[in-house]
Amino acid sequence: MENAHTEGARTEGGRRADVDGAAPVVPHRRSPSVPPAGFADLEAATAGLRPPFAVVDLGALRANAVHMVRRAGGKPIRLASKSLRCRPLIGDVLRQPGFSGVLAFTLAEALWLAEDTEDVLVGYPTADVPALRQLGSDERAAARVTLMVDSVEHLALISEAVGPSGPPLRICLDLDASLRLLGGRLHLGMRRSPVHAPEQAAELARAVVSRPRFRLVGVMAYEGQIAGVGDNRPGPGPMRTAVRLVQRISARELRERRAAAVRAVRSVASLAFVNGGGTGSLESTSAEPAVTELGAGSGIYAPALFDHYRGFRPLPAAYFALAVVRRPAPRHVTVQGGGWVASGAPGADRLPVPVWPRGLGLLPAEGAGEVQTPLVGGAADGLRLGDLVWFRHAKAGELCERVDRLHLVEGDRIVDVVPTYRGEGHAFL
Description:
By secondary structure, the protein is α/β, with parallel strands linked by helices. It folds into 2 domains: 39-58 and 312-424, Beta Barrel (Lyase, Ornithine Decarboxylase, Chain A, domain 1); 85-296, Alanine racemase (TIM Barrel, Alpha-Beta Barrel). Helices cover 27% and strands 23% of the residues. The chain is built from 12 helices and 19 strands. It has helices at 39-45, 58-71, 87-94, 107-113, 129-136, 139-144, 152-162, 198-209, 224-227, 237-266, 282-286, 298-301; strands spanning 53-57, 77-80, 99-104, 120-122, 145-149, 169-174, 179-181, 186-188, 214-221, 273-276, 293-296, 318-329, 332-336, 353-356, 361-362, 372-376, 388-392, 405-410, 413-419. The strands form 3 sheets. Strands 1, 12, 13, 14, 15, 16, 17, 18 and 19 form a 9-stranded mixed sheet that branches. Strands 2-3-4-5-6-9-10-11 form an 8-stranded parallel barrel, surrounded by 5 helices. The protein is globular.
């Protein structure tokens, strides 16, 4: 569904934003059409760089941030650091009105970010004993970092790691948000937490508050089957219809169960926050009275997997460029590198998408290669050795695991070069 954010949108640099050339490429199909405006600016800005390199369009990034805040309906967005993996850009987004706090992906990362950030929620449980010991002995970090748990086993592990004395530790409960039907025999959604029913949440809450060093401060429930699955993906129409139906049923069920779980937990302890949602479900999750904040981040870079939602269309903001090194046959070129495949269930939608020059696609027998990637299409005949092909990653922050810096572009110039986590010497996962 088009809206005012996408139709006729322009970046701050003034160029027409690329909103049409974003769909992931099924290996046997050509890449989607991409307007020529914009890539001329990117190529002019990066003319002196040696590929491979990665670029972030600051105009698109900031427009995406503004639009996410609008979609959040007045509730703050906790920024998912895994979707950016670049401290300077995390700081840039957090300075935008409507964003508050970080949703980290490991405790080691959270401790690092907490040096400069006052509110860091670790979005996943940890078994990192050295990091737990560090947290348990650091009063400042303990006041800034919140741990995630979904079992008494987690509580026991943390207690053993940190010992009986030291600053209190902030704890958040992870509530399973999947849809379970037929008495639990049918499971739709991610398998995350074993805590599904409100009674289970209350029982775990009592276990938390019974330990002197723990302070129960939050509840989180991430509905990945809604927020992370596009409802307008390419493929058979009946499949899209099924996805939309499941998402509607799941949203209704979770709204009631999440509210009941929050009431049950609040009967045990006061809560500072209830976190839910993701880039794909900001509107629906923000409408739940029980939810006090949203967690999201992928919409900032707008990777290819987020091209297939009816309700919103973010502006692609992150790209990487590879050089042509072979011309093996008519209508074929080969670029160096390219096997930057996204995590998740293996499939064509996890492959990087060649978006410029338009008319290029991956070969079904080879896909995106470790050292080289062959491409096919009419545009290949116009490319010479050394020319660039521009790609989008299927997911957001995973791009930053492949490069040590991001070149920030406004219009036709690079305005800054900033390190990724990798560029700062960190590979947390």
